[in-house]
Design goal:
The protein is an all-alpha fold. The protein folds into two domains: about 35-125, Methane Monooxygenase Hydroxylase, Chain G, domain 1; about 135-280, no CATH class. The chain contains 13 helices and no strands. The chain has helices at about 5, 30-35, 40-55, 65-85, 85-100, 110-125, 140, 150-155, 160-170, 175-195, 205-220, 230-255, 265-280. The radius of gyration is 31 Å and the shape is rod-shaped. The two termini are about 55 Å apart.
Length: about 290
């Protein structure tokens, strides 16, 4: 057996849903093999099948030896089921061990059926455990970081961190429309910050009115007596930003907010890249 499996430390605690204590919940194939121990499952099932299939009658000279071996195998199997959190299988094994404690009840036919029942129950119970594999090229999107869109975005717009992270994880999981939904929530937060920069009311106001208010304020920057020396550069920057928001509103936000569209993985990926780049650009001039 490879040392990477033989040397692995396996907890005796029942497995959590995500299998590991890693904060991002991801499990590598090696983690999976170490924790679920498929070689032990196969060996246990094979041994119980062999013992049950050729169990001798009670008057056979090898009968007691086989019973003792079966008890050891069932006890090991009980421990394995405990490791894998298979409670029904554990109950079946406990029942067989209780039966074996009374020799008169542990007949050849009972023990044969019991071995078959234990392996069948383990297979059925394990079939109920489902796992989702993330494509290798999308693993990076699922990793749970505190800065999903970069340090500057998380610093300038900390309220976007949750939805930015969820957008990336939804994309990694193939939930394209959900990804777009979270991206619109990111932009809504940034738009509110943008509106406050020009004292535009954004609460309970639709995007169109907010953006129009911003555009008007940007056009009037030159008439502000307290305008900064680089106001023309800022005016150009904010004018382009407002135009981009209006485009996003018409092309994406309206359809997402009113549940009129479903998005493909390619569309979600394109928007994810663009929204990340857009928020990174805005983070240089706007702050919560």
């Amino acid at each position: 057996m490879s040392t990477c499996f033989a040397d692995a430390e396996v907890s005796r605690e029942p497995l959590p849903v995500c299998l590991t204590k890693d904060s991002n919940g991801l499990v590598s194939l090696l983690d999976f093999m170490r924790l679920l121990k498929p070689e032990a499952i196969v060996q246990t099932a094979r041994t119980l099948w062999i013992i049950g299939a050729v169990f001798p009658p009670a008057d056979h000279e090898d009968y007691k030896h086989r019973v003792a071996r079966l008890r050891r195998e069932l006890e090991d199997c009980f421990t394995l089921c405990d490791d894998l959190d298979l409670p029904i299988s554990k109950m079946k094994i406990s029942g067989v061990l209780a039966t074996m404690a009374t020799p008169s009840l542990a007949t050849q036919s009972i023990l044969e059926r019991s071995c078959s029942l234990v392996t069948q129950t383990m297979c059925e119970e394990m079939s109920l455990r489902k796992y989702f594999e993330i494509r290798q090229d999308r693993t990076k999107y699922f990793i749970d970081t505190q800065v999903p869109f970069g340090e500057e975005v998380s610093s300038s717009f900390p309220s976007t961190t949750f939805d930015a992270g969820e957008a990336m994880r939804c994309y990694a999981l193939g939930r394209s429309t959900a990804c777009v939904f979270h991206l619109m929530r990111v932009l809504e937060i940034v738009l509110a910050v943008f509106a406050r920069r020009f004292s535009i009311q954004s609460d309970h106001t639709n995007w169109h009115n907010v953006i129009e208010g911003i555009e008007k304020a940007v056009r009037n920057m030159g008439s502000d007596q307290n305008k900064p020396s680089n106001w023309k550069d800022q005016q150009e920057f904010f004018s382009q930003a407002a135009s981009n928001f209006m485009f996003i509103k018409d092309a994406w936000r309206n359809y997402t907010a009113h549940a009129r569209a479903k998005y493909t993985e390619d569309e979600a990926e394109t928007l994810l890249i663009n929204v990340r780049a857009f928020t990174q650009k805005l983070a240089a001039q706007l702050h919560e």
